[in-house]
Amino acid sequence: MDIENLDAMGCAELIAAGQISPRELVQATIDRIEALNPSLNAVVHKLYDKALAAAEAPGLADTPLRGVPTLVKDLDGSTAGDPWYGGSVYLKKLDWHEPDDSHAIAQMRRAGLLIVGKTATPELGMQVNTVTDAHGTTRNPWNLEHSAGGSSGGSGAAVAARIVPVAHGGDGGGSIRIPAGYNGLFGLKPSRGRVSNAPLEADPWGGLVCRHVLTRSVRDSALLLDWLSKPGVGDPYAAPAAVRAYLDEVRAGVRGLKVGLMTHHPLGGALDPECVAAVRLMGQRLAEAGCVVEEASPPAFANLRPEWLGVVVTAWIAHELEDLIRRTGVEPGPGDLMPAAAGALAAGRKLPAPVYIATMEAIHAWSRTMKAWWADHDILLMPTSPYVAPRLDVLAADPANAAMGVSLTAPFNMTGQPAASIPGGWSALGLPIGVQAIADFGREDLIFRIAGALEEMAPWTDRKPGVCAG
Fold first, then answer.
1. Is 151 known to be catalytic?
2. Residue of 225, 263, 157 whose CA lies nearest to 447
3. Could you say which of 78, 102, 147, 151 is catalytic?
4. Which of 14, 237, 326, 399 has the highest CB neighbour number within 10 Å of its CB?
5. pTM score of the predicted model
6. Which of 102, 175, 196, 229 is catalytic?
């Protein structure tokens, strides 16, 4: 039984049919972590005993994903009583634990998922590459010399290597979509307010951060969003309710949808020709499926200012660290923070409040003009990243190259729109290429319809990376 090749819903179907037990699935996941993690460095906290106990608990609910193993990113949400280091030596030295599940993690458990471990992330989510002083380097299972992306890089590598069928992630500038693109996965950043940030956060990064999962199948992502999109008590806002279950949208068809293709960099940067070719190929497939496809993109892109993201991230990283200092009672010492986080803390402590407020107002004003394009279109298709997953040594030699990685994803954290990376093929070197689909605010249904159609026309899950279970 090749259970490692099943998606989460496929695993749940085996459990429901009595062909395998939750404990057997958890043990198989543990075995895969032990076999593959030395190469990948994707899992940084092993929660084996808890997962095995949960698998045998008499109260394991009869839910759609009952007994399916998963992994949780060591950032963007807490699991009750477990380590929470956020990729930081500072928190690792303190062996910091969070006492409660975040709202989204609690919903994952209610859906029936069993948490077997926690995955690697760059320090406080500040890179699109998962390399830290706390845990070392996370590697791409398609080629170990290449980046797994970030900041949900550990989750991306683990799902691609078939350690688990689904893993948790968070996205403040591309941190679900970039690792999905680099690892050949489907990764959706939902609309702002779709997934609650309760109870510890209300509006992280000024509304730029959204949480969801990385999956190999579109249907797994849709089913999980049906569960995760339940509002938390006291949320400051919520995205518009879905008309019907997202799972029902995956095979609902795309005929008549109007799709724009963006094949140039909105800020004038370079795009890898292979990434552009993948966008055009997906546009061609959607045209064959009945979409109206044209070369078109939002004119407001030209007015985007990259420095806006820097102000927001600096202010919020400083706030997050100040909050941790208050909660732990310990100030970071020399070497406890990597240069990016240490620099953000120092700069954020000096950042005037009017500058931050003016930046947020500029982002919102620009977002209004940006979103006007979707009044006449349903989907924008464009590359997830300007380049295919880069070599780790290239990123280490040129940090600016890594920063360029968010230039195509972060704009939609600013607008709050749903955006997903969809597998669009492979490069000449055999690395995955992600294509990004963006819908109007609150219209995740259209993304699931587009992604479901592309998955059906050109399935991507049969192709496996070099480091992989099975």
1. yes
2. 225
3. 151
4. 14
5. 0.98
6. 175
